[in-house]
Automatic annotation (TrEMBL):
Biological-process GO terms, alphabetical: response to stress
Transmembrane intervals: none
Region named Disordered: 1-21
Domain of life per record: Bacteria
Species whose genome carries this gene: Aurantiacibacter xanthus
Any one Pfam family match given in the protein's UniProt record, by short name: MarR_2
Limits of the HTH marR-type domain: 26-160
GO molecular function: DNA-binding transcription factor activity
InterPro entries: HTH_MarR-typ, MarR/SlyA-like, WH-like_DNA-bd_sf, WH_DNA-bd_sf
Protein name, entry field: MarR family transcriptional regulator
Amino acid sequence: MSNNGKSPAARSDDRQDVPAGAGSADLRLWVRLLACAKIGEKHLRRRFEDNFETTLPRFDVLAALYAAPDGLRMSELSKALLVSNGNVTVVVRQLQDRGHVEAQVNPADRRSAIVRLTPTGKARFLELAEAHYGWVGDLLDGVPEDQKTLLVTALGELRAKMARNDRQ
């Protein structure tokens, strides 16, 4: 018996000690999405470290810059990666030390810099991207194509809805 005089079975049946909504489909979906993301991220982090002695954040910065051939301001890079300016600054410096990116003064605003891939950085990104593509394929191996298509569609709709709600 617990302090409230109820057996464990009785407590689990009346669920008065559980927050409202704890069993909702919304919460179950959210927890499932986070679990899948964490498993995938852990797998990718380990693979980048083991195979290339690099990190997932470095790959993410290279990918964002690859998608923006004219470069990005640090604030744009932070926004694209959903991380703070401080976090991006550290990663950009690491990539500069390796010769993968260069930062130049922004001619339109001399207080900011534009970060671009170097030719070495572009080659490195393409090498990492090929491996990344394979690792993601390994993670999703066995999931039928029709289910992947349904998930991509449903998650695209969810992302759009969440983005609209976030702006309100």
